[in-house]
Automatic annotation (TrEMBL):
This is DUF3305 domain-containing protein. Residues 143-174 are annotated as: Disordered. It comes from Azospirillum himalayense. InterPro entries: DUF3305. It comes from the Bacteria.
Length: 174
């Protein structure tokens, strides 16, 4: 058993739908995860149909770390494991860039604090789910729940005390 992280590339497809809104011109959604497609450039148009345009957003790397298996177990536990795709607004056409892909719900929480990232959960493809299950089987160890004991408050430390005069300092104000 090694303590090495494992990596897998995954191709992401997205769709841009034009909408009639004075503040936003389009709605984006992640449409799928594919085996990496090295023969396609990021943001290649895959399909166009009226108001909708499908893109191959590019390849992102999923990294599994041995120390994060509790988060992977949490993702697998519900029976419908998810792949989280994080897209970031960009000044370059078409207006987004593929930032990251993860299976770690904890990592998603960190990105959601950024504010302007588009984060979508899609079903994890079966081959990636199997890879994740295998990784968890090799690296996960249950950690017993440990409830931290709080220190008892010291009532004397919380009591009000008279101000302390400092020797050698003039206590007058003028």
């Amino acid at each position: 058993m090694t303590g090495q992280a494992e990596r897998r590339g995954v191709g992401i497809t997205v769709e841009r739908q034009r909408i009639d809104n004075p503040w936003v011109d389009a709605r984006w959604r992640v449409t799928g995860a594919l085996p990496a497609l090295p023969d396609r450039a990021p943001w290649t148009v895959l399909a166009q149909d009226g108001e909708r345009t499908g893109y191959y957003a590019g390849v992102a790397e999923i990294v599994l770390h041995p120390g994060e298996t509790e988060n992977y177990v949490e993702n697998l536990k519900g029976g419908h494991p998810m792949l989280y795709v994080i897209l970031r607004r960009s000044a370059e056409d078409p207006g987004l860039r593929l930032l990251a892909v993860t299976v770690d719900p904890g990592e998603v929480d960190a990105h959601s604090d950024a504010g302007d990232d588009l984060i979508e959960a899609i079903p994890l493809p079966p081959d990636l789910a199997e890879w994740m299950r295998d990784f968890v089987a090799r690296h996960h160890t249950e950690r017993p729940f440990y409830k931290r004991q709080r220190d008892r408050a010291d009532p004397e430390a919380l009591a009000r005390r008279a101000p302390v005069a400092h020797p050698g300092k003039d206590q007058r104000h003028g």
